[in-house]
Amino acid sequence: MDEVLSISHAGKSRGSLRVLEDISISVEAGQRIALLGHNGAGKTTLMKAILGLTPLGDGQITVAGHTPGSAPARTTTAYLPESVAFHVALTGREVLRMFAQLSGVKPADVSPLLDRVGLAHAADNRVGTYSKGMRQRLGLAQVLLGRPKLALLDEPTSGLDPISRHELYAVIDEMAAHGTAVLIASHTLTEVEARTDRIAILRQGKLVANDTLANLTRRAHLPIRLRVRAAPDCAADIAHETAGARVNGMHVEMLCAPDDKMAALRQLSAMGDKVADIDMHLPGLEELYRHYATGEDG
Ligand SMILES: Nc1ncnc2c1ncn2[C@@H]1O[C@H](COP(=O)(O)OP(=O)(O)OP(=O)(O)O)[C@@H](O)[C@H]1O
Predict the structure, then answer these.
(1) Residue of the CA atom closest to atom 1 of ligand 1
(2) Do residues 91 and 127 both lie within one domain?
(3) Which atom belonging to ligand 1 lies closest to the Cα atom of 17?
(4) Is residue 257 in some structural domain?
(5) Model pTM?
(6) Which of these, 208, 290, 224, 289, lies nearest to 259 by C-alpha position?
(7) Number of domains composing the chain
(8) How far apart are CA 28 and CA 180, in angstroms?
(9) Could you tell me which of 54, 20, 14, 24 has the C-alpha nearest to residue 37?
């Protein structure tokens, strides 16, 4: 196991508020992990602690074995803030050259990077003329510069259109394939669904989930909603037999556990012509996120 980021029983208070409570997360080389949570859940605080910008009250964090903020940890870690801002009068190439100099990378290495993030055509245009998506790509190129062992990306695709988002994630995937551990903070599960190996969810400073999407789905055991359209004058019968709730006169809605789905369908099928149609609504990512992030069901 090649552990890059180790967070062990991290805790922090701000005044009387516990903003991080006993958080333990481990991320290995090449792993992509999403850090999700509502506003104020503690994502930024945790990222700042990993960067060594804010001290923990309890527990410990190490980055490739080093203390956050130490010189070896800093050269190992790259950070893309949510709203990345560069000097508007510089071109993309000049911005990257400047960062290359700061981190001791050869200037010749800048062109392939611009190409890799899809900015080769605009490399010599001023950043002030870039769209939000282009600025995010430049930010990602800056993250890629020093071949970091750990990349912290704060809402990397917020405000991007679906195609730009897709392209940005392709670069993130490539980065992980080269062995970088990637931590992506986000507000939504739909955003990171297929692009991460593991999902960690913070709720009021506590880690309430840390697993693969498949395991989280299984464990949440969210109900399936069956919406039955009744034949004329049959809604009351169906509602009575299934203990479902009548909706809009013609419909009956029932909830069933995933394991009871076939039994419920068989019961409906046995009612013959009384049932005109059935719609099945499987719990989606939004429901799953709500389940973990707020503690509510579905
Ligand atoms: N500098 C600060 N001083 C006092 N309280 C703070 C400070 N920074 C954050 N907090 C509080 O700590 C808690 C966690 O905030 P944090 O910014 O880490 O959440 P977040 O999950 O990143 O939220 P968002 O999605 O809005 O960025 C919140 O209750 C916030 O009000």
Answers:
(1) 14
(2) yes
(3) 29
(4) yes
(5) 0.83
(6) 224
(7) 2
(8) 9
(9) 20
